[in-house]
Every structure is written in structure tokens, then in C-alpha cells.
Specification:
Layout (H helix, E strand, L loop, with lengths): L18 H7 L5 H13 L4 H15 L41 E2 L2 E2 L10
Antiparallel strand pairs: 1-2
Amino acid sequence: MSTADRGELPLPDYDQLSVGTLEHRIRALSAEDLTQLLHYEHEHADRPMVVQVLTARKHQLDQGATPSGGDPAAWRPEQAGQARGGSPVTPTTSPQPMSPPPHGTPDQSGKPKGNMQRP
């Protein structure tokens, strides 16, 4: 039995979802949707952690749990590498300049402490 292609899966961008995100998204799916995802997963990547999460949720539904509200198709997967841009630090929120550490910095040698005796 061949499963549907990616466009017919109950979760958009299913292949790009992390296990943690998938675990939350599947809470709104029916047992039939989970069966479809399990078939697809077994035929494609067959990732053990994903299979475990899908199977556990399907077992919960089989035991009487109900899907949570919401539309999983309306959710968007996380987008890695997209920064908001700009720095939230302003002159009023930046820390005060500090003195270099007592051992010095690469371009400035340290200063001996006054209470230390030299040999």
C-alpha cells in the first residue's frame, strides 16, 4: 500500500518538522491521520524517534484520548536561521565599560598588585 505524497499529508512540511515540534502538532490529529503519517514515515525516512512519538499518540487515541483543538495545517514549522535583525542594545541599556582584568589583555600587560613582594 502506497501512502500519499507530501502534499496530501495532514501536516504541512511534515518532513522538516523536528521531533519536539511534531510531538505537539500531532495532538490535534485523528487516529486516521496518525496512521497515514506512520505509513508515510515507514516508507520514507523511518526515523525511530518519530515512529515512537506517532505510535505513542495513536495508542493514546485508541485508549480514549481526544484530539486537542486547533488546526495543525494552519501552523507553520519553525524557520531556523531567520534573525529578527538589529540589536536591542542601546546606549541606555548597554553595560558600563569595565576595567581590564588584573592579568591584563593581549594588547595591555597586567599591573602588579601593591601588596605583592618582588623577589
